[in-house]
Prior knowledge:
Shape: elongated
Number of strands: 2
Pfam family, one: MFS_1
Number of helices: 21
Strand content: under 5%
Transmembrane segments: 21-39, 91-110, 116-137, 149-171, 183-204, 216-234, 240-265, 285-310, 322-344, 351-370, 376-398, 419-440, 521-540
Mean pLDDT: 78
Keywords: Membrane, Transmembrane, Transmembrane helix
Order of helices and strands: HHHHHHEEHHHHHHHHHHHHHHH
Domain Major facilitator superfamily (MFS) profile: 26-545
Largest sheet: 2 strands, antiparallel
Low-confidence stretches: 1-15
Protein name: Drug resistance transporter, EmrB/QacA subfamily
Helix content: over 70%
Amino acid sequence: MSSSSPASTEPSGSAPVLSHRQILFIIFGLMAGMFLSALDQTIVGTSMRTIADDLDGMALQAWVTTAYLITSTVSTPIYGKLSDIFGRRPLFIIAISIFLIGSLLAGMSGSMYELAIFRAIQGLGAGGLMALPLTIMGDMLAPRERAKYQGYFLAVFGVSSVIGPLIGGLFAGAPELLFITGWRWVFLINLPIGVIALAIVLRFLHIPHTRHSVRIDWWGAATVVLAVVPLLLVAEQGRIWGWASAGSIACYAIGVAGIIGFILVERAMGDDALIPLKLFKNSTFRVATILGVLVGFGMFGAMMTVPLFLQLVEGATPTESGLLMLPMILGLMISSIASGQIIARTGKYKAFPIVGTFLLLSGFFYFSFATADKPVWWMMGGMLLVGLGLGQLMQTLTIASQNAVEARDIGVATSSSTFFRQIGGTLGTAVIFSVLYTRIPTTIAAAFADPTLSERVRAAAQDPAVLSDPANEGILKVLQRAQENSGSAGSALDGDTSFLVGANHDLAAPFLTGFADATVTVFWVSFAVVAVAFVLSWFLKAPPLRAKSALQERTDAQAAEDAEDELSLAAQRAAELAGSQLSPDTASNRVVDPSARR
């Protein structure tokens, strides 16, 4: 046990392990680490086209995204388990260091293949940056207090979501900064932020940790990779490969074999498992985990589809679409901070998953009425509803999972919750885009068949002013190909959509209407998934939040054990001094001096 732990014989009255000042400094470091991972998810999107053009690999850009996604998802539960064994501090330092090395290498990439490999290295660090901050919060703060502080973490997530596309667009648009190609700063900007985070962590993150003698679940780590990687791969690439192609079928088979192997290994490992199966015996943890998967699906369904709608239908640039997402981010921040304050004061959280899923459900229902002629402000109403729902769900589900397990399992419970939410988000992204691009040819064909829209196109195509405008050159070529080949219009949005930028609104109307109608189908899919989450949220049991942090619980338990051993040892010594032929009953074992164990 750490020498900083109190040795009181009255655990309930023990002093806090960390002072308020220490906790605040640690939180600053954790927020800096989380800012790194959250920013990296949004900053790359708006610059990827520029990067792919410069590295001559437009067709390979999906692998850059997939590589990061796979390694960050797979490493999340591994960080959680290892931090339970070796302590949070060394694992968080390792995560930041790996992320910074990956960022430096990514900024030096000479090809898309190199960039994919280096993004995978970044992902290995990002898995720890996503899971460990909330785990460390679970150590330091009691569940009721934790809700207050987690609102700040969601604020960091919200800010990074807004400024990420802006910074990415600025860097990608700059030919050179400090004699370095502009887009490379998308990755190099992580270095100064990461160094500051690392300095704060090294200086202030000193959490007492008791080393436990456990087996490391290497086979569990191997089988989770075998289970998750093929399924994530086919989820990302299946639409391109074909869902029934040989490559997809091979991924299905390997993934299923990996899942079976993982379950068998985890059952054999018991408490030492990477994701102990005993956690799922707890109904609160089980329901919160399933809700996390469904909410992850809905969250990514909104965050991936709405920006596309804003860019293609409303004509916003990537940077402008990031700013237009502000109502969702504000809703998320307001509801997360407000719900955190209420939980901290009342200790009750049962209502928030119900209200949160209802608001999320209402947001998708609202979006289902979206049309190509709806103004931007109308879309913002739906974004606000979705943000208000997500803000109540993200932290509440994490708190419910942490509160449902023993103090020693906080790390693995938090990382497991994050892991399954990422799985839900990945599946959501794959399903959403599969449905979207399956529907687009049908909806565009239907739009061209609409007499009103086709008349607008015909009239605009005969207007000399429209024909002489250079901005319409691209769309006129697409329309000409559509006349020659009736099926080509439906596939016009599969690749380069720049022909819509600045194009005459009447000429673009069938494409915009077709895309809007296809997007509405996606919103209905998200609505159906979140509806299941809403029903399930009523079954989430909400036991009272514990009044002590996990760290305090472990410290007090150790202090109580030491006090009991000291009493037994004193009785044993008294019997020896009195010359008793029979020493007091100490469970037939000679008591070890507690100080010798430190």
